[in-house]
Glutathione S-transferase
Amino acid sequence: MAEDEVILLGFSASVFGIRPRIALEEKEVKYEYREELLVGNNKSPLLLPMNPIHKKIPVLIHNGKPICESLIEVEYIDEMWKDKALLLPSDPYERAQARFWADYIDKKLYDPAKKIHITKGDELEAAKRDLIEVLKMLEGTYFNFSIEAEGPKIVGWGNRCMQRDSVAKTLPDQRKILELPKLIRQRLGIE
Ligand SMILES: N[C@@H](CCC(=O)N[C@@H](CS)C(=O)NCC(=O)O)C(=O)O
């Protein structure tokens, strides 16, 4: 039987793009990663026909068929490559809880985290407050904010994730990531 062809269109600085990459690595699926040049809006000719609705990465292309939206892709990977351990809990209630928190992160965390990079003044302060609230909610505790001191469970979870090859080899170089907001701020005239 011919081997599956798996292509992932991504952008290494994207938190959404990293999700299906980690899932593919965890499942040890062979795939071709193609970086999209999102800065400057230089999307490849493949991205638009593969994701005509949102025109966004990540797109997982399995034997020519596209799957869009990072969380849907993670679930697809989990269901498609069943020979490796499940990524989501098998218990329906636990599974629903995992989906709830992933959805919460998308709805509540992404916007303030993004705004921190692209706003200034009052808007920046409001974004910081919103982000702290979300992190406190995830942490399940309430105190003044410093992610190391005040979010030990989240930091501990992050450190445990970093010990997995799938995460360590997928996450982008931190120095490069820190350059990106600077570039965006310069383009927006904030710096
Ligand atoms: N809900 C989507 C969000 C994907 C998303 O926002 N992708 C951004 C990169 S972080 C993108 O492709 N932006 C390009 C654009 O908006 O034109 C998912 O989970 O996959």
The chain is about 55% helix and 10% strand. The CA atoms of residues 34 and 174 lie 20 Å apart. The radius of gyration is 18 Å.
